[in-house]
From TrEMBL:
Transmembrane segments annotated in the record for this chain: none
NCBIfam families in the record: DegV (TIGR00762)
Matches recorded under InterPro entries: DegV (IPR003797), DegV_C (IPR043168), DegV_domain_contain (IPR050270)
Coiled coil: none
Record key words, sorted: Lipid-binding
Pfam families: DegV
Protein name listed in UniProt: DegV family protein
N-terminal signal peptide: none
Length: 280
């Protein structure tokens, strides 16, 4: 049986400790604050990113450096027979396409890149499922096919305020100002890896109720894993977890947005999410 290295990038919201415990290798992404570049989890912390956002500094993220990605593949292939890489969804980053082309042209049979629709903690759960399949003898090609055909992420993001989304260009300043004046809270839908406006309501309480309705609508709860993800707001996360558990009658796990996603959604954002269980 081939020895396979599992690899993600830091949009998967995984700490160094968690990655080591799970045996997952992480390509850390650049974060740029007021023009100065840092590397997530190495030269900047989540708390420092939150501070920068609250001080209204310019906070941006960039794709992983191609050379760093190639160096990681080469380093892993010294110890492993193959690399299995699940990057950030192709709808939000060009990394996926770049990695797919490189793997096909220069690392055929050595590096497998999944055409991803995943972001944040669900990426890690999918990789844990992949590990389970590899343990059962599945090949990298078979696991890639299973994830691309059967893997599914649906989530609703509810920002506490629109400042970070406005600063990152996700919404226009005019829309943010109008939403603030009218006390409008947007619900952002993540489906097939892309982000769209799902709905608009007048209060955060109604937004959380609507978020639970949207993420649970039309599915059998037993076919999915359920989660709540928060941005430095554990108390709010606990409340939302109870709401979601009551709606689905299933366990709901709690997680935190880390630097890369936090840079785009801002402190106080809550995410309700589900990922489909891959049967194997």
């Amino acid at each position: 049986m081939n020895k396979i290295a599992l690899m993600v990038d830091s949009s998967a919201d995984i700490t160094k400790e968690e990655a080591q415990e799970l045996g997952i290798f992480v390509l850390r992404m650049p974060v740029i604050i007021d023009g100065k570049e840092y590397i997530e989890s190495e030269t900047i912390t989540d708390e420092e990113v939150v501070d920068a956002l609250q001080q209204h500094k310019s906070v941006k993220t960039a794709q992983p450096i191609i050379g760093d990605m190639i160096q990681m593949w080469d380093r892993l292939l010294e110890e492993y027979d193959e690399v299995f890489y699940l990057p950030l969804t192709s709808a939000l980053s060009g990394t996926n396409k770049t990695a797919l082309n490189l793997a096909k042209e220069e690392y055929a049979g050595k590096v497998t890149v999944v055409q991803s629709e995943f972001v944040c903690y669900p990426t890690i759960r999918v990789m844990e499922m992949a590990k389970g399949m590899f343990d059962k003898g599945y090949t990298t090609a078979q696991v890639k096919e299973k994830i691309e055909k059967e893997g599914e992420l649906m989530a609703v993001l509810i920002p506490e305020n629109l400042e970070t989304l406005k600063a990152g260009g996700r919404i226009s300043p005019a829309v943010a100002s109008l939403a603030g004046l009218l006390k409008i809270v947007p619900l952002l839908n993540i489906c097939h890896g892309s982000i769209d406006l799902q709905d608009k309501v007048r209060t955060l309480k109604k937004a959380y109720q609507r978020g639970v309705e949207v993420v649970t609508q039309g599915v059998d709860p037993e076919d999915y894993e359920w989660m709540v993800i928060d941005a430095f707001d554990k108390e709010k996360s606990e409340m939302c977890k109870e709401m979601l558990e009551k709606a689905v009658g299933q366990p709901v796990s709690q997680h935190a947005f880390k630097t890369v996603i936090l840079s785009h959604v801002g402190k106080g954002t809550i995410g309700f999410g589900r990922i489909k269980k891959i049967r194997y």
